[in-house]
Amino acid sequence: MSGSAGVASAQRALPVLEIFGPTLQGEGLAIGRKTMFVRTAGCDYRCTWCDSKFTWDGSERPVWLTPAQVWAELVEKGGGGFDYVTLSGGNPALLGDPVGQLIRLLHEHGVRVAVETQGSRWQPWLAELDDVTISPKPPSSGMETDWDALADIMRRLEGSKAHVVLKVVVFDHRDYEYAKAVHARWPNVPLVLSVGNPYLQPDEGEDELALRLLDRLRWLADRVTTDDALRDVRVLPQLHVLLWGNRRGV
């Protein structure tokens, strides 16, 4: 990754762990959309099944890049073949104004910008995004949802330019009931249910992994299609895992 490895001022730089693409968005309502990814370091959660623990467990150190440096690397890696960037983590909502500067820079270049966050922290730049996926974490994560904080974020996003979607990862029955509770609170916000992936072992064969996840997807689909309480709901896989397994950078 280009750029100085020295820690720059938090007023002008972002802690970046990886920039990659073009690839396909694997989750949410933008699933299948060609995108570049910018993954930042740091998270306020410690989900038991996190597939990106390297963003918060100290195993990898970020490079501090200004928004202009991030843009230069996006162009270097993506060429002229992209018009969509996904900000990922960790939790990018831990970061302040430098993310807003990056969003505005990307918009100046005609690029749509998306983010996924668990809905635990508000940042004013969330309202400047094109697509916002709020993904509160279910019981299987081991985390507790701050419903007041989540409600405040959802309220602040009302009337913004951002297209807002709720997404819940479902591993088991408790997660499913949690997803129904989320939908009951915000029935007019589109809800995506994404099947959980407990098979994070690096030696898991990609074909075997895909078959296991499809079995779980069928279980979730059967539940949703017979449940009158769930209406404006999409049941989706993690497309990138079906295509490429648990590899990074895809």
What can you see in these coordinates?
By secondary structure, the protein is an alpha/beta fold. It has one domain (14-244): Aldolase class I (TIM Barrel, Alpha-Beta Barrel), CATH 3.20.20.70. It is built from six helices and nine strands, in the order βββαβαββαβαβαβα. A nine-stranded mixed beta sheet has the order 3-1-2-4-5-6-7-8-9. α3 (147-157) links the parallel β6 and β7. α1 (67-78) packs across α2. It is globular and about 50 Å long.
Structural class estimated from helices and strands: alpha/beta
Q: What spatial order of strands do you see in the largest sheet? A: 3-1-2-4-5-6-7-8-9
Stretches where pLDDT is under 50 for at least 5 consecutive residues are 2-10
Q: Count the E strands.
A: 9
- The CATH architecture category equals Alpha-Beta Barrel
Radius of gyration: 18 Å
Global morphology:
globular
Quickly name the level 1 CATH class.
Answer: Alpha Beta
Helix content: 25-40%
* Percent of residues in beta strands: 15-25%
Major sheet summary line: 9 strands, mixed
